[in-house]
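call fold(seq) -> C-alpha cells
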Amino acid sequence: MPIQSETELYEPIKQALERLGYEVKAEVNHCDVVAVRGDEPPLIVELKRSFNLPLLVQGIERQKLSDLVYVACEMPAKGRAPHGLAWSDLQRLCRMLGLGLITVQFYKRKKPAVDFLCHPEPYTPRHSKRGAQRLALEFRERSGDYNVGGSSQRKLVTAYREKSLHIAHLLRERGPLSPRELRELTGNPKAAAFLQDNYYRWFQRVSRGVYALAPEGQTALATYSHVVSELLRAKA
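ret:
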C-alpha cells in the first residue's frame, strides 16, 4: 500500500545519507531534512508522498539556502512515475531546475530501497539545430492555422496533409494525372513522392505513371473541406 505520510520517507533517507558519511537532522529551519558532512555545504531534502508541483516549489525555495537540494518521494510498488510520465522525464525536469531526485520504494518483508535518480548540478540545455530547422520549416509550409492548441487524440492538419489534400483535390477535379502534371499544378517538387508513398492511402495508380483519387481520398476531401477551401483561396 502507498505510504500514508511523507514522514515515512525520513528514516530510510536518513540512513542512506548516514551511510554516505553525513550527519542528519530533521526539521531544521523549516527544511524537512538537513545533512552535513565535514566542511561541505549543507544538503537539504524536501519530502512528499508523491512527485508533484508543491514538492518542486519547496525544492526551489530551499535553493536560497544551499546548492545541494534534493526532492524525495515514494517509488510506487509498480514503479510507475506519476502523471503518465516516465522517471527519465522527471529526472530531466529536476536537472533543469538544479534539483536532485530521490525515491524510496517500500517492501513488505525487506528494508526500503533508496535511489538517488539524479543529483543537483548546473543545467545547460542542449539545443537541436535540426529540430529547430524542422520546426521553422513546418511553420512556413502550413498555409493556415487549422488546429487547436492542446489537442490530443485527433488528426492534425500538418503541412504534409495540406499538400496531400491539394493533390487529392486536383485529382478529383481533373481526373487521373501524372506526377509531372501534379508537380507543375501544385508547385510541389516532391509530388511524385506523395503519390508513391501514398501515406494516407488517398491515391491509386491506374496505369504506369498515372494516378487517380482513391475512395479514401474522396472521404478525406469531405472531412477536410474547410482546409481545401482555404488552400484554394490562399493559392488564388
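Residues 7-118 form one domain.
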